[in-house]
Amino acid sequence: MMLNFICKFLKRTKKGFTLVEVLVAVGLFLMIIITISHIYITVLRSEQVAYALLNSENNIRDNLELIARTVRMGKDFVLDGDKKGLTFLYFSGKNWEKTYYRFDESNHNLNKNGLPLFDDSVLKIEDFQFSVKDKGAHSQKIIIVYLNAFTVVKKMEYRFNIETAITPRLLPNI
Q1: Rounded distance, CA 133 to CA 167, Å?
Q2: What is the pTM of this model?
């Protein structure tokens, strides 16, 4: 008798899922996969923007460091009337060489001795100016560099406004 009861019970139990249960499970699975995919795509886009901005910042930092190194080893600074250019003598290790930096408004780049410095595929410079602070014959000059640039990443514009001061190493004769 007990054996008959167990056999009847086993025959009556379900051996699969109903259509409604399958549809609910697939729906939940799809919602989870879509959410995870959306998060993954958002992270990828954010990473691309971060790398592009990092590339622009590195371009700015490297070129400003190059300018600072040459100015630190320079003397006899002459500022152009529009403050877009700076001419000076640079000590290259053996002799003094005439060096000039000039912002070229036509191609939105800073030139060193006629050659462009910044990577214009990454960065567009809107304004670049020099300023020379001189407090007298026996004081050290201070060269101030102003940079206003932008880059476009994923149709969004990111701006950089930088000001830095550079002091030449060569002290004036006292």
Answers
A1: 10
A2: 0.74
